[in-house]
Amino acid sequence: MTKQKILVVDDEKSMCDFLEIMLIKEGYDVTCTTNGQKTLELLENNLYNMVLTDVKMPGVDGFEVLRKTKEVSPDTVVIMITAYGSPEGAVTAMKEGAYDYITKPFRIEEVKLTIRKALERSALLRENILLRQEVEERYKFWNIIGKSPKMQRVYDLVEKVSQTKANVLITGDSGTGKELVAKAIHYNSPRKSRSFVTMNCGAIPENLLESELFGHMKGSFTGAIANKRGLLEMADAGTLFMDEVGELPFALQVKLLRVIQEREFKRVGGTEDIKVDVRVISASNQDLEQKVVRGGFREDLFYRLNVIQIKLPHLRERKEDIPLLVNHFVRKYSLDTGKQIEGIAPEALGLLLSYDFPGNVRELENIIERSITLETTPMITEKHIRSYLNERMISKSMPPSLEIPDEGLDLNRVVEDLEKAFILKALEQTGGVRKKAAELLGMNFRAMRYKLSKYGL
Asked: What is the homologous superfamily of the domain 149-313 according to CATH?
């Protein structure tokens, strides 16, 4: 094991020699100097774990040594020793980055302990930084962010399937990040230098889907004014990502199955067989197995697409990932908007942690973008988060139509029902804590108690 290097600086040679002998006995690699200028040269040309320096020295004093050390090697621990100790000197030393400030005469065992603790702390900090960097890289695997066990399983699967040619089916609700996972697989695979082509099967009109996928020849249908390559050709040697694959019409499912099996197809209106090497990654927010049972999706195509399945969890199933996601989106939209947003207030984060996120990660991203756009302080406050959540609650609580029936209605009753619904929702979000529920609804606790009594809650 490499010995830890300590530089001892003291204009008194006897003190220098004493510290050198003591530290060598403790197992350290020690360099001693009594010359201030020599000290600066040593710091420029060597890397030390620790610098032990006297404060009062002619020419270059201990504070200059401290500043130089922090300039060339911020991670090096500095301990200052002086016979002229004062509270002011200690405060100044700490402010400028010293680990400790020891006054002569000192007890040898105490100095040894201080040095050992300082070096252990420094090593621990370095390990933590490396670990945090490693963890952050893993949590942000191609912008897929999360440290929860469910997301760890997703990372493991992505890493494993990336190196294979197998087709992958990614399932999960809308907004869970299916396309991000598809990109992670592609850009960590041997195909990463080739095209990643996306086709949203639910967004393209049915009469254009076949042309988009296979391409077409001029004159093959009205509007086909030129030959056109399809997405399959564009993805040759790369990856075709078919989002919402469950929306494919049954007739087109047959043709896609042939492409996967034979690795060839014809353009619409064409006679030439075009060979392709394409990896198909598909995604769906539907239960395709149930769709197969109901006859809405071909069983043979399902098994061809579903060689490996990656199921993405709903955000409410991995709430421990919300702070990580929030920090990521804060950084992203702070840069986009040019605002200096430092983070999110604990109260605002608490509101997010109590929310179910029907729109998943996409909804969380939208909330943070909106909050940063509206925020006028350096921190996202609960004001804009609460505003968004209240709007969501109102839209869910309002009847689908505001038309008044011919027989009329009891407006007071309607208002009371809506008020009661809000109170129940607030109590649910705050775990039954009435004071917090009152704050969530913008009313004082006395008013809340009256409403609870009024509605028998």
From this structure: P-loop containing nucleotide triphosphate hydrolases (3.40.50.300)
Closest residue by Cα to residue 172 from 361, 324, 42: 361
194 SS3 class: coil
| Token reading at 68 | 């130089």
C-alpha 376 chain-centroid distance: 24
Q: Residue 182 is encoded by which pair of tokens?
A: 């598809």
Domains 5-133 and 316-397 in one fold? no
DSSP-derived secondary structure letter, 346: H
Domain-by-domain residue ranges, the chain? 5-133, 149-313, 316-397, 411-454
Return the ∠ at Cα 275 (arms to 271 and 276), rounded to 5°.
135
Q: At 279, is the secondary structure helix, strand, or coil?
A: strand
CATH 1.10.8.60 fits 316-397, yes or no: yes
Closest of 169, 178, 230 to residue 204, by C-alpha: 230
What is the CATH class of 411-454? mainly alpha
Q: Which CATH number fits domain 5-133: 3.40.50.2300, 3.40.50.880, 3.40.50.720, 3.30.360.10?
A: 3.40.50.2300
DSSP 8: E
H, E, C per residue of 236-270: CCCEEEEECHHHCCHHHHHHHHHHHHHCEECCECC
Structure tokens at 138: 């893993």
Q: pLDDT in tens for each of the 457 residues of the chain?
A: 568 899 999 989 999 999 999 999 999 999 999 988 889 889 888 889 999 999 888 888 889 999 988 888 888 899 998 887 677 777 788 888 899 888 888 888 989 999 999 998 888 877 676 566 555 555 556 678 898 999 999 999 999 999 999 999 999 999 999 999 999 999 999 999 889 999 999 888 888 999 999 999 988 888 888 888 899 999 999 999 999 999 999 999 999 999 999 999 999 998 889 999 999 999 999 999 999 999 999 999 999 999 999 999 999 999 999 999 999 999 999 988 888 898 999 999 999 999 999 899 999 999 999 999 999 999 999 888 988 887 776 555 555 445 676 667 778 877 887 888 888 888 878 877 888 888 888 888 888 888 888 877 7
In whole angstroms, give the CA distance from residue 241 to residue 179: 8
